[in-house]
Amino acid sequence: MRKIILSFIGVLLIIASFFLAKSLIANKNKPKPILEKVTKTVFTDTVKNGEVQIRIPANGSLVAKRRVEIYSEVQGLFKMGNLLFKPGQKYGAGQSLIRIDASEHYASVQSSKSNLYNSISAIMPDLRLDFPEVYQKWQNYLNAFDLNKTTPKLPEMSSEKENYFITGRGIVSNYYNLKNLEQRLSKYVISAPFTGILTEALVTEGTLIRSGQKLGEFIDPTDYEMEVAISKTYANLLKVGEAVDLNNLNKTETYKGKISRVNGSIDQTTQTITAYIDVKHENLKEGIYLEANINGEIVKNAIEIDRNLLLEDQQVFVIKDGMLDTMPVTPVYFSETKVVLKDLPNGAIILKKPVPGAYVGMLVKPFQANQTSKP
């Protein structure tokens, strides 16, 4: 019985093997399915070489071009004035910023004036007898002498004898001591050197001011400059008087400036050169952060494209016979988003936007504006 079962199983295996072999032979002779080639639609651009203006980006904050730090050279009480000494207060040119009580020093000046007048008056009889030819000019000097006005300049000495006589009486030394006191008296009033605005006030009315103390800061709010650091690579492109486009961080406002100065040395630490850009505008304030685009050299026979279109081996994709190919190029200048290239022939069709997974030989077709998509 066992032999019959094994014989039956063997016959079944032979029959199954026959049908399996027949099926494999039939499938082998079937034609392979033809895969449909996919053509990708891409954005393209046609190369048209020309002149490309290189723009060097830089940034910095505005600082008033005319700035004065106010210090006191004398000591005294800060007197009340017509305008409060507060940040934001505007002053005209020559208007008093600070008045310091000078009553004690004023008395010393008046005393010295009186001494000088008395010294000259005392020598008038001797001048009339010994130097009659110069008597009148010294008399005229005394007649014009006013204790409430600035001391006038001494008359010119017309002879050596007159010079010895006047100097020997101590008149010349008294005169210069008096002028020194008058000069110091003028320091009790600090006036605005130009029309501007007070940006910092460190004292208030009634404060005892000390000699050498900083009192505040005063600026001209109509004229600013911006300090920018440029790579030494572009040092030869910086020219005094060159126009510069400026804009705020939001790109909502633009201003016009110009390069006023260029530092003559390169920073050894950062290997940059400092340039200063002048800018004037009623909307600007000190401390505003601006971006500048400095015009560099003009590159001829070049084209500017997006930086992400340049491959790592300094090649770009071009379209030839409906397929992607690569072409070597020479990068001239890199910015944050753009690159200037040379050695691309006119009329060459390049990609305008990067294609994910692009490779040499990929089938592509240019995007048409009126092209309709198939359902």
TrEMBL record:
Domain Multidrug resistance protein MdtA-like barrel-sandwich hybrid: start-end pairs: 66-215
Domain of life the protein comes from: Bacteria
Protein's name in the database: Multidrug efflux pump subunit AcrA (Membrane-fusion protein)
GO cellular component, one term: efflux pump complex
InterPro entries: MdtA-like_BSH (IPR058625)
Lineage, broadest ranks: Bacteria, Pseudomonadati, Bacteroidota, Flavobacteriia, Flavobacteriales
Gene Ontology terms for molecular function: efflux transmembrane transporter activity
Cited PANTHER family: MULTIDRUG RESISTANCE PROTEIN MDTA
